[in-house]
Amino acid sequence: MRILYAAIDQVVPGTLGGSTHVQAVAEGLAALGHDVHVAVRAGAPNRRRESLPTRPAEAATWHDIGTPFGSPNLRLLRRGRVRALAMALSPDVVIERYHNFGGEGLLAARAVGARTVLEVNAPVVDYPGSPKRTVDRLLVAEPMRRWREWQCRTADLIVTTDRAILPPDTPAAKVIETEWGADTVRFHPGAVGPVPFARQPGELIAVFAGAFRAWHGVGHLVEAMAALERRGSPWRAVLIGDGPERAGLEARVAAERLTRVAFTGSLPYDAMPAALAAADVGVAPFDPDAHAPLQRGFYWSPLKVFEYMASGRPVVAPALPRLRAILGAGGGEGEAGVLYDRAAPGALAAALDTMDDADRRRRLGAAARARAEQHFSWAAHCRALAAAIAAMRATPPGHAE
Predict the structure, then answer these.
(1) Mean pLDDT of the chain
(2) Burial (Cβ within 10 Å: 0-12, 13-18, ≥19) of residue 369
(3) Which residues are bridge partners to 262 per DSSP?
(4) Structural domains for the chain
(5) What CA–CA distance (Å, rounded) separates 86 from 248?
(6) Selected residue with higher pLDDT from 146 and 191
């Protein structure tokens, strides 16, 4: 099967979750024997084509298209280039990574008679109080809502983390609900390589890897570390990543003279397996109250959690239903980590206090690795996706417009 994967607002290779996702899905489908072509933005200085992933002949082929000025809101301006690529390739299937202002992959598929898959990992439906919804209503015809609903109607298959973020009239038969995943070959407990921190004798390392944005909750980890440092805890936090919250947190750490919080900045993705394997626990201190779209529920399928698990590291996270299910949780402890009540003062620090015992960390870490291999690998995700696409192609195309 020849597949065109349109994800032109994503930078590959890159350090963000979307970049990881696109590369993993493309490589996973190619590893199953499919001829996969991916339209992305090349992720290196000057956006040189050579910066795209170099892979063996049997793996995915990468095409540097990208959005004007790097803006996903301008994706449709590249519809001619995506259509030309589709005309040259004659794909059997076009997968498009959803965006409210996307649709270029779906239009290209229509031009060449290909079947379509819409990959949805952000809400299609507006959340209460959405500014976008207000603007849409002022435009009377609600063009943004109509366009994104057209995308969902047009797609033959929708793959998503949560049906609740789709329009309510989306037929259940064309939806596959699944988690994303981790590369369980690359991420494993024995991963070696340069590590961006040094461990002092008797020190325990809690790692955070991700975006420094309010809803990722890294500020809660800094607050917990301040409390732990005051009482002489052996825990030290290593914070990997970047984002708008980073400068403020660095200033806070300096002002409070915290000595047990280290910032590495963003790391190349190839450096991440060794960094996670060198830690003792992975922390995912999400704060859904800080992100208005999460009013509709915690729809994220968190890559950091899967990569912690694949690295054989127990996970410390808030007791949200989705995270409880991922960690196999019962009560306050799951098979793969510890959940805390994010509304309780000092709960994150207390959860880390419970992880001082090495035997407990080993037990939870082994369970985390086993769950990642069994349920949350990109290989498993791609097998399920390929099977759903094959089943979709075996049925006549719908007539929805």
Answers:
(1) 91
(2) buried
(3) 238
(4) 2-181+378-393 (3.40.50.2000), 204-375 (3.40.50.2000)
(5) 45
(6) 191
Pairwise CA distance, residues 27 & 267, whole Å: 21
Q: Give, in order, the Cα–Cα distances in Å from 389 to each of 124, 157, 211, 255, 398.
A: 21, 7, 32, 54, 14
Residues 56, 49: Cα–Cα separation, whole Å: 16
Query: Are the C-beta atoms of 10 and 121 separated by less than 8 Å?
Result: no
pLDDT in tens, 147-180: 999 999 999 999 999 999 999 999 999 999 999 9
Biggest alpha carbon–alpha carbon distance for the chain = 66
Does residue 29 have a pLDDT over 60? yes
pLDDT tens digit sequence for 220-235: 999 999 999 999 999 9
